[in-house]
Amino acid sequence: MKKKYSIIPFIILLCFLNLNCQNTKNRASDTVSSEKASSDNCVNNEFRSSDISLMPEWMPRDMAVFKVLHPGIVVWGSDPIFHINHLETYKKELQGFKDLGINMIACNVWLLTATEEYLYHNPEYREAVCRDITGTPIVPPWLDGQYKGVKPYWGCTNNPLFQELLIIKARLGMAHGATMLHLDDHLGTFSCAEFAGGCFCEYCLEGFRKWLAKKYTPQELSKKGIKDVTRFNYAELVKASGYTTKKAYRDAV
Ligand SMILES: [Zn+2]
User: Fold this and answer.
1) Measured in angstroms, how far is the CA atom of residue 159 from the centroid of ligand 1?
2) SS3 for 226?
3) I need a surface site. Which of 100, 108, 165, 251 has the fewest CB within 10 A?
4) Distance, CA 118 to ligand 1 centroid (Å)?
């Protein structure tokens, strides 16, 4: 089940014309490469206090049901990852909103997971996930779905591969008619660190090393027991301190 989260994330208004995704591969990126976000997507977005927002995660059979609401914004759009094999349908859905007179249409870029089905078909992304102190991939506690045995693992927003996928999704949305971005679960890996026992992936450990080196002098680090920050491994420190399981670590922080 897709989560229902209490926080309504930010809407970021962007004319998404200059994003170039490097390292395109035979995945969603192939679809993007054949599409170009045109300047037609750049609209004069301006919120009004009278605007009525739609949050249609999934489309109704008949778009006319929205008419009586006189909506002005699609604030919670659908993530293109769910339409990856039928993007023309996705495009028609977005056009349906435009036919209702809506110019501000958000593309949902879900920062939480690549989804279980996409992870099944693109196994390389299963390596770009948050990991607990034992190295085990973390599943967001409120996501209970799976696809042929693959779970919706928590994507690590510090991992370049997952970052690449986020950009691909944003570009897909813009290329198919969206005019805004909705960054869903925008805290990404920070939330995982806050209450899910992660992340101890190589990118997060390296990021922590860089943060320490920037924040503290070598003398200050030495006083904390870190003689050589370039070789410091936070995960090893945690385990050496006796917190060798996800539960033990979560109970301690
Ligand atoms: Zn990580």
Assistant:
1) 6
2) coil
3) 251
4) 19
